[in-house]
Amino acid sequence: MYTLVNRIATSMETIIREGSPKTPFVRLDGEKGVVEIKGRSIPENSVEFYKPIIDWLEKFGEAPSEETNVNIQLEYFNTSSSKCILDIFKRLELIHKKGHPVEINWYYEEDDEDMFEAGEDYQSIINIPFKMIEMEE
Amino acid sequence: MAFDLKNWYLEKKQGDIILEYNGGITPELISEALESIENSLNMKNEKNRVRKKVYNVFVESLQNLYHHVDLPPSTAPVEQSSNFGIIILSKDGTFYRISTGNFVKKEKLNYIKDRIDQVNSLSDEEVRMLYRDILNNDEFSEKGGGGLGMLDIVRKTGNKLEYYFYQFDDEYIFFSLDVYIS
């Protein structure tokens, strides 16, 4: 039993993906409990891009860290990414509901009403503490 | 009267042309087109808020084309690319216009028309609510967007979509869409 738990805990690799002109920087750190997505997200095939992230979260959900901090700092994203981002939040919501607190920090530039409203959209759908953080230009 | 692509171009090319493209709509083309408008002086001098909106709506428009375009009719005076589309981004006075054009099979006309008419008929608040509804429904379309594209464009621009259907021949329609950002 011990070895099995141990194996799950150590099998949670940290994923770092550098950003590209169409895809965001991603950092998934199971040990520290950090999920970070930054930049722009406009791939034609978002499902393909986000699949490894969803898979990682599913695994992480089996043995989550005590707390999870989620930082979303997107410049802009396409509609096909918007569903994938929701999917990420739904995975995190399950973790939060199981008693492992999750907090989402949603960053937006001070004059960016679109990104602010996008945050509001998710906030209205997802039951996780959601902090809107304004950044100065 | 027969549809004349040249006249269509003339009409859409009013103002300052930032980008014009016709041919196959591919992921590579979309990347290049975005990079090209990012490097344009018009965009560099634009307010952050407007600039981001233009990029966002521009990408959404091109990806809409990418996911939906067909092979053009063999008699059309254009490149016979399996995913042919036209995009023009211009600055006309105080607003940016994104015009797209592509050939569609006649039987798709009603579907497209109904879709746009529906989006155009909604108030800002209704657009926001419908967007949230679709976002949250579990149906994941093959293409990932789940029908949010047009709605997102209207929401971000705050303007109605202007569309025209021109009969090209018995089988094809030329579908023209204008989006304004101010």
From TrEMBL, chain B:
One of the Pfam families matching this protein, by short name: DUF6272
Keywords attached to this entry: Kinase, Transferase
GO molecular function: kinase activity
InterPro entries assigned: DUF6272 (IPR046239)
Name used for this protein in its record: SiaB family protein kinase
